[in-house]
């Protein structure tokens, strides 16, 4: 019986992906649970495994874009791998093949000789092995950031990019008269581009701005930092305050905590906040669940864990699903002022920016204060200007007077 291998649903707003790599060839026998191919979407890549054992027949080539639910292969589970059954039987060694135990001196020399090569051999996942073989990389020369020094997909992709930069430099020097260099966009980058354009075409995006004085927040963090870090094992950052402030603003202006679906408006009564994280391959938005119920320490731990997992390329699809509002901090890269793009199907996204000392009027006097510009992009179909401004003012008030937040440290 031929079993269809379909592209699974991997997220609320994800409608398609790219078959970036087949780990099994058409005509090969696959076991249940073995990785068949890697599916890349606009946010993460995930490995799809065989649900049954049998003979694989692929329907689409590598690099092809496929829709959710599309059949990309079949597995004939009526076929049995008789050859493997034979191989599974232990072979008896002939007496003459048995080797004598080497002498201690010889054994030590052999171990010393083979140890370097053993250290160089790192266990590779199917996805990593495919990239290594396709790009003709030398895995022993690539530093691994995974557990026990294992190579992750991010490690090998970074190695490819570094080599690509070197190759481009060589091409530029060899062809000094060249005015441009053309190269293919990666599947992930193409999907990100499509999502951004889709967001612009399907929502009436408008952005409202404000600024907030960070003096009180910086003072509070300075006083609480040492005890907080000692007690919780993580630092008290800025993002946890902005998550808490956003939750308070969402409660005050429920329209921002919703989305348009066809002719309906869906009002969310929960607070799952997406936090944008920049990685080498692009921007991803893992979701902090039930942010209204978590302490500052819990939020900081979630943020730190997601950031580390995202940079290692180990985020799961479920980590990115279900967020109803997003916060992005361009200030960590030095951004002073920007208009963030919505993360569909959400109706709002808050942009944080760089903190810069600026002269401002305080009680009729000019003082230099640490100031940050805030930007709220929103879907004007669902949210009126008054509601958007009210939301941003609420965030500003909570940041400028942190005592308005439910402090628990």
Describe it.
This protein is 33% helix and 24% strand. By secondary structure, it is an alpha+beta fold. Strands 9, 12, 15, 16, 17, 18 and 19 form a 7-stranded mixed beta sheet that branches. Strands 1-8-6-3 form a 4-stranded antiparallel beta sheet, with no helix packed on it. A 4-stranded antiparallel beta sheet has the order 5-4-2-7. Helix 3 packs parallel to helix 4, helix 7 crosses helix 8 and helix 7 packs across helix 9.
Descriptive tags:
33% helix, 409 residues, four-stranded antiparallel beta sheet, alpha+beta, seven-stranded mixed beta sheet, 9 helices
Short summary:
By secondary structure, the protein is α+β, with helices and mostly antiparallel strands. The chain has helices at residues 82-88, 104-120, 126-135, 153-174, 187-202, 215-232, 239-252, 296-311, 385-400; strands at 2-6, 16-22, 29-30, 35-40, 45-49, 54-58, 65-67, 71-76, 205-213, 258-261, 264-267, 273-275, 277-279, 282-284, 287-288, 325-329, 348-352, 356-362, 365-379. The strands form five sheets. Strands 9, 12, 15, 16, 17, 18 and 19 form a seven-stranded mixed beta sheet that branches. A four-stranded antiparallel beta sheet has the order 1-8-6-3, with no helix packed on it. A four-stranded antiparallel beta sheet has the order 5-4-2-7.
């Amino acid at each position: 019986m031929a079993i269809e291998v379909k592209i699974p649903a991997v997220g609320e707003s994800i409608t398609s992906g790219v078959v970036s790599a087949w780990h099994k060839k058409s005509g090969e026998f696959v076991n249940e649970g073995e990785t068949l191919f890697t599916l890349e979407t606009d946010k993460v890549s995930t490995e799809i495994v065989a649900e049954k054992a049998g003979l694989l027949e692929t329907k689409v080539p590598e690099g092809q874009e496929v829709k959710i639910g599309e059949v990309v292969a079949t597995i004939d589970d009526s076929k049995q791998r008789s050859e493997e059954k034979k191989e599974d039987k232990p072979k008896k060694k002939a007496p003459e093949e048995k080797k004598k135990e080497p002498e201690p001196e010889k054994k030590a020399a052999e171990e010393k000789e083979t140890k370097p090569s053993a250290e160089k051999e790192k266990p590779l996942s199917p996805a990593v092995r495919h990239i290594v073989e396709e790009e003709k990389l030398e895995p022993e020369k690539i530093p691994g950031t995974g557990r026990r020094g294992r190579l992750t997909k991010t490690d090998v992709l970074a190695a490819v990019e570094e080599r690509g930069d070197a190759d481009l430099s060589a091409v530029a020097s060899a062809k000094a008269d060249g005015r441009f260099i053309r190269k293919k966009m990666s599947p992930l980058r193409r999907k990100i581009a499509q999502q951004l354009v889709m967001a612009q075409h399907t929502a009436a995006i408008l952005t409202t701005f404000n600024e907030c004085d960070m003096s009180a927040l910086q003072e509070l963090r300075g006083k609480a930092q040492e005890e907080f870090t000692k007690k919780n094992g993580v630092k008290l950052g800025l993002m946890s305050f902005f998550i808490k402030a956003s939750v308070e603003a969402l409660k005050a202006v429920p329209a921002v905590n919703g989305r348009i679906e066809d002719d309906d408006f869906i009002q969310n009564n929960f607070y799952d906040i997406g936090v944008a994280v920049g990685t080498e391959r692009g921007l991803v938005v893992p979701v902090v669940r039930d942010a209204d119920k978590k302490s500052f320490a819990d939020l900081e731990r979630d943020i730190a864990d997601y950031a580390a997992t995202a940079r290692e390329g180990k985020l799961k699809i479920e980590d990115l699903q279900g967020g109803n509002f997003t916060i992005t901090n361009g200030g960590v890269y030095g951004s002073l002022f920007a208009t963030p793009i919505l993360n569909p199907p959400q109706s709002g996204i808050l942009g944080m920016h760089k903190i810069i000392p600026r002269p401002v009027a305080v009680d009729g006097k000019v003082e230099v204060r640490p100031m940050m510009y805030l930007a709220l992009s929103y879907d004007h179909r669902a949210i009126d200007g008054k509601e958007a401004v009210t939301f941003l003012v609420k965030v500003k008030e909570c940041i400028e007077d942190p005592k308005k937040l439910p402090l628990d440290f």
